[in-house]
């Protein structure tokens, strides 16, 4: 009984610890990108420092939040995430 409780607590703490690393965590693998370029529908390119990004399961969509608070949600083919 106590052993199962300890294992459950350990697993929960592991997930919390992993989610605190980087700006995107996928199954314990952290993908941290500092910059992004996004092509908008009208052809303009916006770029900036990435605060957070997310790729959704079963979709080709990406949401990028820049440090200045701007949020863009677009198809993954319109986004470049990179580090200098």
TrEMBL record:
The keyword Signal applies. Keywords: Signal. Residues 1-20 form the signal peptide. This is Lipoprotein. The lineage of its organism: Bacteria, Bacillati, Bacillota, Bacilli, Lactobacillales.
């Amino acid at each position: 009984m106590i052993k199962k409780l300890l294992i459950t607590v350990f697993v929960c703490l592991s997930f919390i610890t992993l989610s605190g690393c980087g700006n995107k965590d996928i199954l314990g693998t952290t993908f941290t990108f500092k910059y992004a370029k996004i092509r908008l529908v009208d052809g303009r390119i916006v770029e900036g420092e990435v605060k957070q990004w997310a790729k959704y399961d079963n979709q080709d969509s990406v949401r990028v939040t820049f440090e200045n608070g701007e949020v863009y949600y677009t198809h993954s083919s319109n986004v470049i995430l990179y580090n200098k």
